Amino acid sequence: MATQFPPPSKRQKRDQLEISRTQQDIDTTIPDGTVRVRFVDQATGETGSLPVLTVPLSQASTKNLEILLNELKEQTDDRIPYRFFPEGATEALGDKEDLYNALVKPGKASAESEITLQYAPQAVFRVRAVSRCAAAISGHGDNILAVQFSPINSSRMASGSGDKTVRIWDCDTGTPVHTLKGHTKWVLAVSYSPDGSILASGGYDSEVRIWEAGTGKAIGGALKGHTAFITSLSWEPYHLQQEGRPRVASSSKDGTVRVWNAIGGKIDFALTGHKGSVTCVKWGGIGRIYTSSHDKTLKVWDASTGSLISTLSGHAHWVNHLALSTDFVLRTAYHDHTHRVPATSEEKLAKAKARFEKAATVGGEIVERLASASEDCTLFLWTPLTSAKPVTRMTGHQKQINQVTFSPDGMLLASAAWDNHVKLWSARDGKFLFTLRAHVGPVYMASFSADSRLLASCSKDTTLKVWDLRTGKLKEDLPGHKDQVFALDWSPDGERVGSGGADKQVRIWRN
């Protein structure tokens, strides 16, 4: 007589439902067997108190490993999404991958030996891809050459134009708030201070101007000293500023970089040494200023004394742009996805410093990586704090590269070029990941979402594109501009994308 099993109880049904909801479906093609897994924190390089676990091969998927790690760390109530990097790999396992098909079957690891997985937390929040134009705002009388969102939230965005004005826009209502007049020629660069209270602008008139972001009033007069147009602006990181004395660095075609006391309106010092136009300046989080130039070199300066520390050589043509792996946290200081602003200036300082240190720590050390993009169609990855030699040279673009940018989590690097392509690289060692193909004109800029999962790009072909970085596939195609799009920014809170170009319209995009 056949044995009759009792029907499952309510509790068993509930448990089964929970397993099917949280765990990935078991792949029936995976053979029986187990694998030993060791979890290592990518930031510290240590296992800590985590045990080495024996996991059934059929259940060793990325999602199940994430659940397991959260359980071991006792984070079941507030689960954190993780990326897993097999030892020695620069690319993380995909969301739907498993250890058998990714490592054991191709022979990259043996089921008999221990598999070490480095884990790194992903952003706990998820940014949704922008999919529609929420506002197309006219007002500027000429090409829009620069846009930037306030680090506080996406309600305010500044734009600089060929009509000699800077405008601050209310992105909630799609209306202009302030028109900042003072420049006598094109405005080429706009930059918010890390706390969001001040706005700097630089133009073809060789002047830097400082404005109150809230009221649009000028702070002092024009900062004069450069003898040619301003190419870029970079603020001193918030955690390095003296109280009440924020400083901003400006680079110029005259071959110099000048560091200004923004409130006092005086120059602190000038950095001279480049033999050609300085194309980009970046102010790092540990008191270094990085500059790139048409003389084919990059230079590293001490931000407190203005003295030259090292010259980085390697490019065969003009260096067009620089990016720092800590750009995002330096830009946003103590502002993050929680929107909780510390009450006192000491707490603000401490939070800004902690966010920088967390973003810059790799293997227990502070590492600030630098990427440079050049007219020679190549990119270089540097660790200028430890070496004057590049980590790697990245080739693949067929034409000169306009811009390079790091993802907020410091894992990815995107480059936009005249060959109509955006390329994606691993920011750890420069390994090539994807070519993002869909634009039919030169790509001027790219900007990551705050969770590092999406990328927006703008082009001469009049469109914006949004890309899914897990797959390298096009997520959204955003037509609307009537002419080429020069300027692009994804707000630090992830809510909106702003763009501007030759059609003189600012466009705000959202989900």
Automatic annotation (TrEMBL):
Keywords: Nucleus, Repeat, WD repeat. Residues 1-25 are annotated as: Disordered. It is found in: Nucleus, Nucleolus. GO terms for biological process: ribosomal large subunit assembly. SMART domains: WD40 (SM00320). WD repeats lie at residues 137-179, 180-221, 223-261, 271-311, 394-435, 436-477, 478-511. GO terms for cellular component: nucleolus. It holds the Pfam family WD40. Belongs to the NLE1/RSA4 family. This is Ribosome assembly protein 4. It comes from Lojkania enalia.
